[in-house]
Amino acid sequence: xxxxxxxxxxxxxxxxxxxxxxxxxxxxxxxxxxxxxxxxxxxxxxxxxxxxxxxxxxxxxxxxxxxxxxxxxxxxxxxxxxxxxxxxxxxxxxxxxxxxxxxxxxxxxxxxxxxxxxxxxxxxxxxxxxxxxxxxxxxxxxxxxxxxxxxxxxxxxxxxxxxxxxxxxxxxxxxxxxxxxxxxxxxxxxxxxxxx
Amino acid sequence: xxxxxxxxxxxxxxxxxxxxxxxxxxxxxxxxxxxxxxxxxxxxxxxxxxxxxxxxxxxxxxxxxxxxxxxxxxxxxxxxxxxxxxxxxxxxxxxxxxxxxxxxxxxxxxxxxxxxxxxxxxxxx
Lengths: 196, 125
Description:
The structure holds two protein chains of two kinds.
Chain A: E1 13-22, E2 25-34, E3 40-42, H1 44-55, E4 62-64, E5 67-69, H2 70-83, H3 87-101, H4 108-117, H5 119-125, E6 129-131, E7 134-136, H6 138-151, H7 155-171, H8 179-195
Antiparallel strand pairs in A: 1-2, 4-7, 5-6
Helix pairs in contact in A: 2-3, 3-6, 3-7, 3-8, 5-7, 6-7
Chain B: H1 4-13, H2 17-26, E1 30-34, E2 59-62, E3 72-82, E4 85-98, E5 102-112
Parallel strand pairs in B: 1-5
Antiparallel strand pairs in B: 2-3, 3-4, 4-5
Helix pairs in contact in B: 1-2
C-alpha cells in the first residue's frame, strides 16, 4: 500500500537518500522521504546517527564568526594569556558560561539590566568591530543552535551577546549585585582552563 | 525500552492523549516530519512534554493527511523554557497504526507558536 506524506498529503513516501543540513554541513543518509515535498521522517534513531556523525568531528564541527569590538579583542587577548588558553577557547568558555550558567541564574534579568546600563558596556562594545573565526565542536554547536531558536538570534549574535556580557561583567567590579556571578565566571574559566 | 507488545499494551491502556504522547516520546515511538526548509524544530524541543501534568489540555481536530491511523490530529501548545527565556511551541501530530503491528506518534508540526491574528475577512489564522 502506498503511504501518503503527512506533511503535504500529496507525495508518496519512499525510502531514499536524503541530505539533511546540520549547521553549514550536510548529513547524508537513507530515510523515508516524500517524493513530492522532500519531507523526511526524523526519528530518534536518525537523530542518534546525526549525533554520532557530528561528534566524530574531533577538532571542529563548524566555525562561528562573531563581530567583536577592538577593545573586546584586546581584553580577550590579555585574559586568555592569564589563563594560558587560546583566544577562541576563552570565547567558547564565555559562550557556554553565558548560556548554561548566567542565563539560567536566578535574577538574570536584573543582572543583565545592570550590565547593559553600566558605563563599561558603552566603552567596550560600541566601537569599531572586527570578526574572529571561532571553531566549535558538535556539542557546543547543538547548544548554540538551540539557543538561537529560543532567543531568536543567529549563532554569531548569540556568541557576540555571550562574549560582550562576560567581558562587561569582568569589568564591573563596583556593583555588589554582580559579585557572586563574577566569582562563578572566574571559577568556571579556571576549572576549564585547568582541564584543558 | 519496552518491547513492542508491551508498549502497545500500555499505549492502549493510557487514559488520555497526553499520556499516550508522553509514553511515545519516552519509548522513542515517534517521528517528526521535517522539510529541509522551513524546518520543524528538533526532538530536543519535545522534552518539556514529559513534565506536563497529565490533565494538561490537548485538542483534537479531524485529520486531513498522513498514513493509516487515528482519524484525528492532536494539537498541543506548550512552552519550552531554557536560557532564561520561553519559546511557545505548537505541536500537531497523530497516532499512526502500522497495520495494527506498531503504534507511533507522527508529528506533522513542531514550530514556534504564534498568537492568533485576524487576517482579511475577519478569519482567525
